[in-house]
Amino acid sequence: MGKVTISTLDKMKAAGEKFVCITAYDATFARLVSEAGAETILVGDSLGMVLQGHDSTIQVTVDDMAYHTECVCRAAPDSLVIADMPFMSYTTPEQTMVNATALMQAGAQMIKMEGGTWLSESISMLVERGLPVCAHLGLTPQSVNQFGGFKVQGRTPKEAKSILADAVEIQDAGASLLVLECIPAHLAADISSKLDIPVIGIGAGAGTDAQVLVMHDLLGLSSHSARFVQNFMEGQDTIQGALKAFVDAVKSGDYPREEHTYS
Ligand code: KIV
């Protein structure tokens, strides 16, 4: 398919073609994700939970992210690799610039930050200097202590209005992509149709332009299981088969189904 860029994803959104993102943290799995046909790889700070064994992503550092981003980028030269900015590494525009630069120099093509309107200034600053940004709204795991747990967001009219307003502002600030996590399917579909930029969902229903899952969840390796997770190892003999089954299911519209969505 050649090197995937943000233009590839923009064209896929315009054509109504779904694309796929899977997390990876090392070279071997990055290669498998790329070979399975996922257009994008997220070096997520979920590595704090699935690799390091923490109960949240709070402990992950910029050095951790840069290390794993380098490992992934070496093995997946054709994928668009997005690297997470970890907890408290983007509290001011200046700090954001320094830490985002470290992840781009580790090989990422885009960085991801969790949060709404307060990020606008940092997003504009990075984008004006040629550093593309993916934003992340809804259940933003770095705010787990603020939320009092990993809880579905956007269920009240006030919360839903605020997530939609944040999404529009983030797009206006120059973000290229948006991740929506654990929000009602109707809200995610509404935001995806209102925005020009591609929207990637996780626990956000079938109405987004793309889907992402944490690799360990889709391989059935995680100790917990959220409603939106499907174990794609079921019916497969190999990890390669499971990754391909996820990619195919997203592209054909077979995942996520009603049973995976929140209302
Ligand atoms: O860190 C991560 O893996 C993520 C996904 C859950 C979207 O942010």
From TrEMBL:
Pfam families: Pantoate_transf. It comes from Seongchinamella unica. Binds 1 Mg(2+) ion per subunit. Catalyzes the reversible reaction in which hydroxymethyl group from 5,10-methylenetetrahydrofolate is transferred onto alpha-ketoisovalerate to form ketopantoate. One of its GO terms (cellular component) is cytoplasm. GO terms for molecular function: 3-methyl-2-oxobutanoate hydroxymethyltransferase activity; magnesium ion binding; methyltransferase activity. This is 3-methyl-2-oxobutanoate hydroxymethyltransferase. Keywords: Cytoplasm, Magnesium, Metal-binding, Methyltransferase, Pantothenate biosynthesis, Transferase. GO terms for biological process: methylation; pantothenate biosynthetic process. InterPro entries: Pantoate_hydroxy_MeTrfase, Pyrv/PenolPyrv_kinase-like_dom, Pyrv_kinase-like_dom_sf. Belongs to the PanB family.
